[in-house]
Amino acid sequence: MELQAPAKHVLAALATKALPPGKAAPFLPMSRAEMAALGWDACDIVLVTGDAYVDHPSFGMAIIGRLLEAQGFRVGIIAQPDWQSAEPFKALGRPTLFFGVTGGNLDSMVNRYTADRRLRHDDAYTAGGEGGRRPDRSTIVYTQRCREAYKDVPIILGGIEASLRRIAHYDYWSDKVRRSILADAKADLLIYGNAERAVVEVANRLAAGEAPHELHSVRGVALFRRVPEHYTELPADDLDSTDEAAARRPGETVIRLPAYEQVKDDKEAYARASRVLHREANPGNARPLVQRHGDRDLWLNPPPIPLSSEEMDAVYDLPYARAPHPSYGDAKIPAWDMIKFSVTIMRGCFGGCTFCSITEHEGRVIQNRSEGSILREIEKIRDKTPGFTGVISDVGGPTANMYRMACKDPKIEAACRLPSCVFPDICPNLNTSHDDLIRLYRKVREVKGVKKVMVASGVRYDLAVRSPEYVKELVTHHVGGRLKIAPEHTERGPLDLMMKPGIGTYDRFKEMFDAAAKQAGKKYYLIPYFIAAHPGTNDEDMMNLALWLKKNDYRADQVQTFLPSPMATATTMYHTEINPLQGVRRGGSEPVDAIKGMRQRRLHKAFLRYHDPENWPLLREALRAMGRADLIGPRPDQLIPLSQPPGVGSGAGKAGGQPRPMRHPGAPRFTTKGVPLRK
Predict the structure, then answer these.
(1) Going from the N-terminus, what domains does the chain have, and what CATH number goes with each?
(2) Which residue ranges make up the annotated binding site for [4Fe-4S] cluster?
(3) pLDDT digits over 529-549, tens only?
(4) Which candidate, 176, 193, 182, 388, places its Cα nearest to that of 263?
């Protein structure tokens, strides 16, 4: 079995292959009555999701459903079913091909619990914002109920929860290493990453009579299978010294990761497996991976080939209703309200930030839509989305300003194993031109009926400083008073483990931003984001960050505490206290301090909210213990006062907050407020 690269623009051709014009369902059916109105006696595919059904390309189930519909399949959706019994999973009858199961746009545990493992009482992806409408580990629970409903129907897992839990992984909420979600859910197949091309192939092959276990040639799938006899197995003991002769035979080589039974008890083995997984993430040179789970081998094919612009256009041009399903009535779905006037222009991120899950899911190769497709979507928003006032709330993606950026040499790109194109420095092979993005901005502004186009996605400022013209264009036309930016920290130690640039780059961007705002006659502010309790951060680092914040007159209303999400490199650091960015060798690995105690995590959050009197008792105690009592007092160069104001308690502060946008694919764009003191 040799994996073949798919034919170019395959989705562009397939997306309109079987569906006659005008025959798309108004909404994919959620009831038997809707099926009957379409003339269906059964669904070929039933998608089960942990989110409310919004028929819009920002919601995974809508993309997959509409794409399969365009193939001629009858697709139904069961959204946020009551998981207490199998009956709700029978609502659309027995699917003739398969159940597709996803936890939703967010990992269900990230969705339901804070970084302090506290239960959230709201859910942005639920009608009315109501919490509790999905179970913990939704993908596993839904799969079990689908199996109870129709025992013989194949079950295919997909979405962010399945994607980031595709191998043995550390789970923060149970504080243990769990098996691949494919094993725990007992599903037939798992599709990870950008799944469009894979799900089209899987559906067509199942319709042709193949069984799920025969689909081992599809890129981006995981399944249980034996290693074929003609394969060469390479151990993951030390990828950096892997036999290069064998590495040049991707169709005949598989890398054996340490088994689940080993990584759950051996942190060094876990760190080694994580390092190998991330280095085998380039679709151009990645080899299959295999990991033993009990008496079976979990097989992971290389990641999917990135979608071309034609394929991206085909996906986003599908006939979405661009609204929540009518069954929700007038109920507000917060995630929908946040994105209904925004446009995704690209996918992927080559930043490689270790705390972020985007690269692990969407890949580091940027996948771009054409200008024409983007402009057509803006016209649809103008013409079809109720409440549009002429303001496009965002034109962006995982990062605002990586549109059409790519490696200058495809051969170098296909051979590269580096985890980031911009750390420790911007790669000389990376094309960092913002010209295409500037041209797009100008065309978007010219669309009739559009009054203002905002950029709300995070700007990668180390790229932006290379284009003064882009900064000027951004500030002059696309900022609405505040622009979010993510330096994450000021100290070199944690920044290196995050794979983020130094604070000096942020300072240069701020100078350019302020100059452009002054030239435009605007009073605009940068809102910097910072992370507390990231692996490799000590108390002194947080103290220095707090002093920087006070010196620059920043007050953060909400702060982000590091949350170890599945599969992220920083999660490996947290769990193993080993740095997998360096070689992992028995007894010779680089150690990393992990911030695990709740008191220290609260302290690090308190430093970010140094201005909150609730935090002052904790900070006074810590500063005295650190020998920095000189920072307690009334002077401007001191951090906190000597005493509490009347009536203010002595708690640990209110340093919590919602999960940050852009750190988890599909997350809603919650705004973190930060108001400069200086007017």
Answers:
(1) 10-220 (3.40.50.2300), 224-302 (no CATH), 521-679 (no CATH)
(2) 349, 353, 356
(3) 999 999 999 999 999 999 999
(4) 176
